[in-house]
Structures are given as C-alpha cells and as structure tokens.
C-alpha cells in the first residue's frame, strides 16, 4: 500500500522552467550568444551550477570558478525577481485537488527538488502546509539521477522507499526514483519518461486507483 507521495517541483507542481529560461537567455545574450527553448530542455531537473556549465559549453565560453559563481548568482537574482511575482494561480492543474485527496487518505507528502529556491516557490504558491518534509537543493549533495533527494524525503517521513510514489517530469528524476527502489509516475510524455511505472499528462489525471 502506498504510504507517501514525493513530488518534484519544476514541471510537476509549477512551470518555473519558463522563468529559468528567461534568466539563462539574458545571461547568454549578455555574453554574446543565443540560448534557445530547445537548449533549455537540457537544463530541466539539473542543478544550477551544472546548468551554467551546459550554458557556457553552448556558447563555447570558458570561465574560472570564481567567475562562474558570480554568473550563477547573477542568474539567480534575475530568476528570483520573476519567482517573487508568482502566486497560487500558477499552480499546475489538479495539483491542489490531488494534494487534498492524499491528505484525506492519510498519505504523507514530501518535496524532492533540485532547486535551492524550492521553499520560496512553495510559499509563493501557498502550498507549504501540505508538505511534511521538504528536501531541496540546499539539503542534498548528489544530484538526480542519484536517489539521495528522494531517499532523504522517505526517511524524513518515516516511510520505506517501497511504499513511496515519486512524481517526476525529468528522465533523471525517474531514474533517481527507480534507483531508490520507489514507484514512479512520470508527468509528461511517454517517450521521455517510459521507464516510469505510469505516465500521465499532469496531476489533474491522477486518482487513488492509479496510485495503487
Ligand atoms: C529545478 C529545475 C532546474 C533547475 C534546478 C535548480 O529542478 O528543473 O532547471 O536548474 O531546479 O534550481 P535553482 O537554481 O532554483 O536552485 P526540479 O528538481 O524542481 O525539477
Ligand atoms: Mg522537474
């Protein structure tokens, strides 16, 4: 029986990818190269510093570690300026209803995100009270596909991995869930997330039957 659900943030609960994109694109343009929406797909679920490395490789640019830190900080400041304007209207369809359903059924809820801004985002969306545990980019040392983020979530909830279901929109996230011995529901397209136990279009397509 499913005892806990662990949610990724970007791409599952909210579409923050569009704000990451604007901020990265601005940074790229300032360095003299373009950054496309297609390029942005490669950054989904990836940590901030790894995202920057990918961006710089696209522009064929080399920077020192110190310069990289400054660039990452600059990007995050831009990103935050968009994030701080978000509100509950940006929650993806069906999310709140599904969280309510889980609460009613006594199923525990945790967040497992690569983002260091996850707490801020949940606050802006007014969803913080649903989450019994929040494991974000400030609490993990190994990025997805390493299962650390989800294993820490399960541990914080006191639930065995085999009794957890992970909701993920990125392939690396699906791999992380499976590596942790958890069930996984992919949010998005079957061709990218085929390894998940089930793939749905969004949380609005979820119900208790699909969970078991
Ligand atoms: C999210 C996004 C990634 C982003 C990462 C780190 O992951 O999908 O594109 O690079 O967080 O974000 P930040 O710069 O805010 O620390 P997730 O795991 O929520 O999908
Ligand atoms: Mg994601």
TrEMBL record:
Site, as annotated: Important for catalytic activity and assists the phosphoryl transfer reaction to Asp8 by balancing charge and orienting the reacting groups: 113, 144
Keywords assigned: Carbohydrate metabolism, Isomerase, Magnesium, Metal-binding, Phosphoprotein
Cofactor(s), by name: Mg(2+)
GO biological process, one term: carbohydrate metabolic process
Active site positions, chain numbering: 8 (proton donor/acceptor), 10 (proton donor/acceptor)
Record: residues binding Mg(2+): 8, 10, 168-169
SUPFAM superfamilies in the cross-refs: HAD-like (SSF56784)
Annotated InterPro entries: B-phosphoglucomutase_hydrolase, Beta-PGM, Beta-PGM-like, HAD-like_sf, HAD-SF_hydro_IA, HAD_sf, PGP-like_dom2
Catalysed conversion reaction: beta-D-glucose 1-phosphate = beta-D-glucose 6-phosphate
One Pfam family matching this protein: Hydrolase
Stated family: Belongs to the HAD-like hydrolase superfamily. CbbY/CbbZ/Gph/YieH family.
PANTHER family registered for this protein in UniProt: 6-PHOSPHOGLUCONATE PHOSPHATASE, HEXITOL PHOSPHATASE B
Protein name: Beta-phosphoglucomutase
Organism: Saccharicrinis fermentans DSM 9555 = JCM 21142
Lineage of the organism: Bacteria, Pseudomonadati, Bacteroidota, Bacteroidia, Marinilabiliales
């Amino acid at each position: 029986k499913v005892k806990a659900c662990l949610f990724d943030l970007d791409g599952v609960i909210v579409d923050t990818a569009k704000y990451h994109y604007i901020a990265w694109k601005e940074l790229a343009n300032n360095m003299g190269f373009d950054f496309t929406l297609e390029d942005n797909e490669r950054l989904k679920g990836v940590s901030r510093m790894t995202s920057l490395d990918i961006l710089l490789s696209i522009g064929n640019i080399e920077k020192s570690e110190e310069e990289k830190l400054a660039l990452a900080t600059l990007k995050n400041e831009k990103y935050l300026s968009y994030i701080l304007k978000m509100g509950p209207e940006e929650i993806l369809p069906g999310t709140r209803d599904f969280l309510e359903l889980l609460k009613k059924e006594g199923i525990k809820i945790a967040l497992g995100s690569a983002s260091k801004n996850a707490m801020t985002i949940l606050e802006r969306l007014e969803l913080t009270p649903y989450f019994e545990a929040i494991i974000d980019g400030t609490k993990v040392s190994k990025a997805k596909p390493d299962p650390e983020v989800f294993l820490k979530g399960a541990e914080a909830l006191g639930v065995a991995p085999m009794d957890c279901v992970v909701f993920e929109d990125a392939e690396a996230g699906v791999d992380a869930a499976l590596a942790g011995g958890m069930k996984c529901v992919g949010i998005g397209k079957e061709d990218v997330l085929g390894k998940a136990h089930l793939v749905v279009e969004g949380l609005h397509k979820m119900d208790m039957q699909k969970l078991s």
